[in-house]
């Protein structure tokens, strides 16, 4: 039976599943796993079609969540970055009994701008889809550069993302297009308002892909959730601010484990 790539390490008494973003793979977490592995049992995942999880075609958000859930521990904190935030959120919606807490990082329940909702203009996402077929490598690199723009060490941070991509085989154009389609069409704002488990939302104030204007809107719509903003971070706060990022997760673990 086909399986996605899954690696477990660490010795903590709490399981933490880490889901990466569009175009990338689990190696993006290399900057925080040394700190986290002594506090958590870490589950590092390459989403279907990405990194070492090759041989998969483009799929829907619900299908992607099902593939990840099939290899997941019975109970864990689920953390998803960007596109991975949507996958983790989908797991929390369909199998809440498996999720001790949900953490979304630089993610949005609705990435696409709609009416008064701030987000990425749909035509921008469509443009990325068209550019993939014209200049595959350059389009991915441009998307990665957007994720660190504005930070103090933007070039260095972008290189870390790029090295994670280049270390492994690139996803196919179809898989990348499928991921962009999820970002363009999915809207989980209303479904996530009913979540009962602890829900932590982490943002970078300089993020050019997930506008900070969504933070107060979601604070109001999801009063049971908590938002944390890293002031000098962009779309990858775990790369630009690894120590502060880990501190937030350790505080969450203390609160969640203490309630079990």
Automatic annotation (TrEMBL):
Assembly: Monomer.
Catalysis: reaction(s): 6-carboxyhexanoyl-[ACP] methyl ester + H2O = 6-carboxyhexanoyl-[ACP] + methanol + H(+)
Protein's job: The physiological role of BioH is to remove the methyl group introduced by BioC when the pimeloyl moiety is complete. It allows to synthesize pimeloyl-ACP via the fatty acid synthetic pathway through the hydrolysis of the ester bonds of pimeloyl-ACP esters.
Pathway noted in the entry: Cofactor biosynthesis; biotin biosynthesis
Record protein name field: Pimeloyl-[acyl-carrier protein] methyl ester esterase
Gene: bioH
Gene Ontology molecular function, alphabetical: pimelyl-[acyl-carrier protein] methyl ester esterase activity
Family that this chain belongs to: Belongs to the AB hydrolase superfamily. Carboxylesterase BioH family.
The protein's Enzyme Commission number: 3.1.1.85
UniProt binding sites for substrate: 22, 82-83, 143-147, 235
Lineage, uppermost ranks: Bacteria, Pseudomonadati, Pseudomonadota, Gammaproteobacteria, Enterobacterales
Source organism: Yokenella regensburgei
Short name of one Pfam family: Abhydrolase_1
Annotated GO CC locations: cytoplasm
Active site location: 82, 207, 235
GO biological process: biotin biosynthetic process
Keywords carried by this UniProt record: Biotin biosynthesis, Cytoplasm, Hydrolase, Serine esterase
């Amino acid at each position: 039976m086909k399986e996605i790539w899954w690696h477990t390490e660490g010795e903590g008494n709490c399981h933490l599943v880490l889901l990466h973003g569009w175009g990338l793979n689990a190696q993006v977490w290399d900057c925080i796993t040394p700190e986290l592995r002594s506090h958590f049992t870490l589950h590092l995942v390459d989403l279907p079609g990405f990194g070492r999880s090759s041989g998969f075609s483009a799929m829907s958000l619900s299908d992607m969540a099902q593939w990840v859930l099939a290899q997941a521990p019975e109970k864990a904190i689920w953390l998803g970055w960007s596109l991975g935030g949507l996958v983790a959120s989908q797991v929390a919606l369909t199998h809440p009994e498996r999720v001790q807490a949900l953490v979304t990082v630089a993610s949005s329940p609705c990435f696409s701008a709609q009416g008064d909702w701030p987000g990425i203009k749909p035509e921008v996402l469509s443009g990325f889809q068209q550019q993939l077929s014209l200049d595959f490598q350059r389009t991915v690199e441009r998307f990665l550069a957007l994720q660190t723009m504005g930070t103090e060490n933007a070039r260095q941070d972008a290189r870390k993302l790029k090295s994670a991509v280049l270390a492994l085989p690139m996803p196919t154009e179809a898989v990348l297009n499928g991921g962009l389609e999820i970002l363009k069409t999915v809207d989980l704002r209303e479904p996530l308002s009913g979540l009962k488990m602890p829900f932590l939302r982490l943002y970078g104030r300089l993020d050019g892909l997930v506008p900070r204007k969504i933070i107060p809107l979601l604070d109001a719509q999801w009063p049971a959730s908590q938002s944390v903003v890293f002031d000098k971070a962009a779309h990858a706060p775990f790369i630009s601010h690894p120590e502060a990022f880990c501190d937030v997760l350790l505080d969450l673990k203390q609160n969640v484990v203490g309630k079990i």
